[in-house]
Design brief:
By secondary structure, this protein is α/β, with parallel strands linked by helices. Helices cover 52% and strands 9% of the residues. It is globular. The chain starts with a helix and ends with a helix.
Length: 434
Amino acid sequence: MYQEISRLLLYGDLGEDSILVRMAEIVRDCESGGEKDPLIRRTYDEVKRILDLSTVCGFDENLWQCYLTWILMTNDNSFTRTCERVGASEGSVNQFAKADFAVFRRLFHYDFSALEAYLGIDCFTILTHYQAIPKRKRTYNQDVSRQVLALRRALAEAADEEAMFALLTDYYKRYGYGVFAMNRAFRIQRPGTELEFLPISNIDGVRLEDLLGYEHQKRELRRNTEAFLAGRPANNVLLYGDAGTGKSTSVKALINEYYDQGLRMIEIYKHQFGDLSALLGHIKNRNYRFLIFIDDLSFEENEVEYKFLKAVIEGGVETRPDNVLIYATSNRRHLIRETWNDKSDMEHHGDVHRSDTMEEKLSLASRFGVAINYNAPTPKEYRDIVLALAKRAGVEMEEKELLTRANAWEVRHGGFSGRTAQQFIHYLRGESAE
């Protein structure tokens, strides 16, 4: 095994801490007649790492091959970057890639029997014929699991490196490579000097049709998003209006509907606006379409973070990349808190020109080319929503009683909104389960 991975060129930068490198060292030490007990301990440590990765990513069947597939899917090198942008094309680099794939093919079918016989263990026999414990969907990343398992099976059946080349270049062109290929939504953090992307695996599977009503709003959101995905001119979007009307749900639904077309979402918060320029630098050359999602966007008078956002949206020296749009939700149409003093800023703030403060505050909202209003439903619309949600949830109750209780719930829980209706149905389902 050690001789095999030493032949890797494009995929050779695995890192000394990788499971594959450490397993190769264990195999080499076994062949040299190393002491068994320390080697068993080292082997178990790597087996545990494979099991831990498999639990997070939902691997099954042959965990060793799943791990190797995961390496091929996540490795960042000149070949994977080129394939993501243009797919397979003629070039000398293909020969290096095929040589690496020949190595991976041999690793796919590596015989661990000699290692197990020397150490007196059978863990790799178990790993290569694995039956995972059924898990709840929200405890692992379903996107990663589905992609790895499908590609693993195809690669395992590949007749030679040419077949593996065709499978992998098709995958890179369709999905890309790395964390953006296998996940649809992310958050960011900066623990040190480098920005990190954290996949969000527990994603609500909501779709736009699940949001009752608001047909015009959903249609406008689809139109702008589909234009963006097709490479046509599209605008940043502000969804504003009453609380609980489905603004955030509408944006989250987009990532479920258009993920297969290359749409990805990065959720950021106000305190991270200073990282926006670095964020754009990381994603501007990737072959995806990114929505920067800002939920519940608003600013108080003394908050100045909105200036970072203004510069990124429109107005900075560096233009916003063509593969990035900003979608924000807010209960405020103009985003920044306004006061009556803003209209008389000459008297109160010493500004030379009247209403400059007002213009400054309105300038952020004006940089969203599409503004979509979500009004609270009327009493009749609220009742229709309750009836539809109750039917969808299988709540069995006489209609008159259901609506009477829904109206009473609305009075105590924040007024007419889709959120209030959904919370009421959750309450009824919990009540019936007692």
